Amino acid sequence: MKWLNSLDELLYEVISWLIFYPVTLGRTLLHPIAMMGYADRQLALPQEQQYGAALSPPLFLALTLSIAHLGATALGETDQLVANRHGLSNLIDDDASALAFRLLIFSIFPLLMSLHFVWRRRLPLDRNSLRLPFYAQCYPAAIFALGLSFGTMAISLKSAGAQSAGAAIIVLAILFYLLVEARWFAVQFRTGLVRGAATASAALIEGATILVGAGLLLGT
Questions:
Q1: Which end of the chain, C or N, has fewer beta carbons within 10 A?
Q2: Where are the alpha helices (H) located in 84-192, listed in sequence order?
Q3: Distance between CA atoms of 31 and 29, rounded to whole angstroms?
Q4: Which residues have C-beta within 8 Å of that of residue 55, sequence separation ≥ 6?
């Protein structure tokens, strides 16, 4: 009976994603700063009461990367992490490990933004001080990851129009992410948008550097 009850809860949780994923996606696209504040407030609630009206930020990021991966598979695109046999890519031999690696890489961006927040606030660096900003940061990071993924997919197509659209999607994703982070830092530190953009840009460049470094190690 315990197993059946657990199965009931799991089934309801998974099927509810069909409703709450698009709800979370739409709210994050239209009101990203409000969603980041929502994440902060939810962590103050008891665990069983958290995220009743949206997906939790890490889950939202993970599902977004899964959807992007399924989209690439539907287009017949070969996963380069799986197909490549150079460097550390030998450790990634199936879709599950490739998806886990992408989740790890894109989680670097929320982590770096959170680190800058903790440093600027002069908070002690520990799990508790990082958790609050990290959860909030996963919401815009998911949109950023979705834009980069779909833009890259479009660029891989043969059509010149699709490649141009893909480049435009990537630029829009970067601008969206940078603007949201600039506003968030400006609000958090009660400073101007320019200083917020400077902090966000520094974290974004650091994340891009790690991303390029990971690509070199993987031989991609």
A1: N
A2: 95-121, 127-155, 160-189
A3: 6
A4: 17, 20, 21, 24, 63
